Automatic annotation (TrEMBL):
Short name of any one Pfam family annotated for the protein: BPD_transp_1
Domain of life according to the entry: Bacteria
Domain ABC transmembrane type-1: 105-305
Species whose genome carries this gene: Microvirga lotononidis
GO biological process assignments: transmembrane transport
Protein name per the record: ABC-type dipeptide/oligopeptide/nickel transport system, permease component
GO-annotated cellular components: plasma membrane
Length: 317
């Protein structure tokens, strides 16, 4: 009797990594379909790479030893009076505009990312507590949020910045000033995260998997941060992307008003404020190029935020 031929077992497929899942997702497909989004991502990546590699710039605008007043107010290189290596000209201190923009991008992006991280952390934590605990705790947190919403974000940032500087003293170094800006901007934008997370948590906490987690005795902080939080991060990512542009604009506004970064450590807003003093004297390049850089950076981030909002909303697919 012939023995039955045993079929060879089918090869088991390897589990797909998170990188493979991302490139196989609808979000990546949506990204590839939008040429405008790809262009915005390229511009944003270019600006971030320029900020990281600012140390390779022709000049360190923060080092007074590298500045020469004889090179002040030189026009861009393509002008008849332009001089190498000042590609985009110089300001009144002989500071290379191109190098100053690269270092200014580093400061503006640092304030933006740190401010968004601080506001997101504070808003997510308060939103989780308000939505999960409810009751009096929810009422107190939301009433504070409602009061803050009645004031513009820039006004809150100015108020916090002024109070902190009055407590610490008017003359602050660059690192302390940057920390104050991050703190003031973070306190200006936490409300959006808190209200969004609260609404999502109030929906999620009534689902069966939360009831099962309570049944096995998991503590409330573990349920909130391990089980509820991953399911409400979609809207938070969209808010964070859009708020990054708002944080950069807020920092530029504060610096333009003279309450932000000092002239010895200029951000893009400080460079625009410096250039504004020489706009009507013919040195247009001092304000034009930092302004263009700020506009392109904010536009790219806003376009990415709009795409991310549409990509994460299943009703718009």
């Amino acid at each position: 009797m012939a023995e039955a031929v045993q079929a060879a077992p089918a090869p088991q497929s390897q589990p797909m990594t998170w990188v493979g899942r991302f490139f196989d997702s609808d979000i990546w497909a949506s990204f590839k379909r939008s040429k405008l989004t790809m262009a915005a991502a390229f511009v944003g990546f270019l600006f971030m790479a320029a900020a990281v590699l600012a140390g390779l710039a022709p000049q360190d605008p923060f080092d007074p030893a590298q500045l020469d007043l004889l090179n002040s107010r030189l026009p861009p290189l393509w002008d008849a009076e332009g001089q190498a290596p000042f590609l985009l000209g110089t300001d009144e201190q002989g500071r290379d505009i191109f190098s100053a923009i690269l270092y200014g991008l580093r400061i503006s992006l640092a304030v933006g990312f740190l401010g968004v991280a601080f506001s997101a952390t504070l808003g997510i934590a308060l939103g989780l507590i308000a939505g999960y605990v409810g009751g009096t705790t929810d009422a107190i947190i939301m009433r504070v949020a409602d009061v803050q919403l009645t004031f513009p974000a820039i006004l809150i940032a100015l108020l916090v910045d002024g109070v902190v500087k009055s407590v610490l003293g008017g003359q602050l170094d660059g690192v302390t000033t940057l920390s104050v800006l991050v703190f003031s901007i973070g306190l200006s934008f936490w409300v959006q995260y808190a209200r969004t997370v609260r609404g999502s948590v109030m929906v999620e906490k009534n689902k069966d998997y939360i009831a099962a987690a309570k049944l096995i005795g998991l503590p409330a902080p573990v349920i909130m941060f391990r089980h509820v939080l991953p399911n409400v991060l979609g809207p938070v990512l969209v808010i964070a992307t859009i708020n990054l542009a708002l944080a950069i604009i807020t920092e530029a506004t504060l610096s333009f008003l003279g309450t932000g970064m000092p002239e010895t450590m200029p951000s893009l807003g400080t460079l625009i404020r410096i250039g504004n003093n020489y706009l009507f004297s013919g040195e247009w390049w001092i304000i034009a190029f930092p302004g263009i850089a700020l506009a392109l950076l904010v536009l790219a981030i806003n376009l990415l935020g709009d795409w991310l909002r549409d990509a994460l909303n299943p009703k718009l697919r």
